[in-house]
Amino acid sequence: MASAICSGIQQSLPGGRIVAAYSWHEAVPILADPTQKLICVITDLQLPDSDHGQTLRALRNIWADKPAIVLTMLDDEHIRLACRQSSWVYLHKSASADRLFTALFGLLQQSGHDTRELARAHQHVSAFDALTQRQKDILEELSHGHSNHAIADKLGISEETVHSHVAHLLKKLGVKNRTQASKLYLQWTGPSAFT
Fold it and tell me: How far apart are the first and last CA of the chain?
């Protein structure tokens, strides 16, 4: 789901880009570099080289009152308070993609950014989020160009069941055919989905 969210954000912010850091050591120079022109930070508080307290303190020192979404598995009132004081959004890691998009939409709107494209991307990611796991499995197979028969054989279900799942996922995604569904799936997951 992370790749779908990143893809949606990437497509919805003209001229924008996603900058990823997988440790606090990598994140600090990115956050401190004004040439990055970052508009929002989405961070996990528990990074490999920093505990939640260190990450929160360092983020407050570098990012101050700029838009941020703080993700954590902890249900901690001190973290919630720190987020409120900095006008950041506090989200539990189990939050849905829909909730993450809603938070990002609100932060960017408050910051004066055009959020129309983000709203469209949000609709697509919400639709993807609404698919069952079986529908996602079938959608992935569709994106490979597989027939209902081939999908049924691979997943160990009947062709009729595949046909039914395809009809439902097309409806949920708001598309007319398998090609449109496959195109959306590839936009959400990117080419790395098959590696």
Answer: 16
Q: Is the pTM of this model over 0.70?
A: no
Q: Say if residue 160 is exposed, middle or buried (CB neighbours under 10 Å; 0-12, 13-18, 19+).
A: exposed
**Within 10 A of 144 (CB to CB), how many other CB atoms are there?**
12
Taking each continuous run of H as one helix and of E as one strand, the counts in the chain are: 10, 3
Structural domains of the chain, with CATH: 2-114 (3.40.50.2300), 131-190 (1.10.10.10)
Q: What is the pLDDT of residues 29-47, one digit of tens each?
A: 988 888 887 888 888 888 8
Question: Phi/psi zone of residue 51: left (φ > 0), alpha (ψ -120 to 50 degrees), beta?
Answer: beta
Give the DSSP H or E segment for 99: helix 97-110
